[in-house]
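Lab channel / #folding
Pinned by the channel admin:
"Please post every new chain as: sequence first, then the structure tokens as a reply. Keep commentary short and put observations after the output so the thread stays searchable."

First post following the new format, from NK:
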Amino acid sequence: QVQLVETGGGLVQAGGSLRLSCTASGMAFSNYPMAWFRQAPGNEREFVASISWIGGVTGYTDSLKGRFTISRDNAKHTVYLQMNSLKPEDTAVYYCKAGARPRTNHQIESPSTGYWGQGTRVTVSS
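Reply from TO:
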């Protein structure tokens, strides 16, 4: 059974930084693409960043490029999201996602497929 557990959320002032972690179990982690999504109150879940299952190729939603960085440590079965220069509009619940199938990056940016964690809340105060 695949389990994804996010940690690292919390309250931070605008301009600060946080690093989110997502540790996976029950899956061959290195064979899966991983992604981060977020959902603010009243909004739909939106794609933040992804990292491929091989080669470490990353992708970001345009508005977050340069502030957020996704990375993975296959030995620790963990994917990270480093968030810098945080803004109040970054306030959301952040979710970790594993691709629905191994050895393919297909639909990693889709909010309706794959395996999901329970989310970790990030609040940025102004």
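NK: The mean pLDDT is 96.
TO: also worth noting, The longest strand covers residues 18-25.
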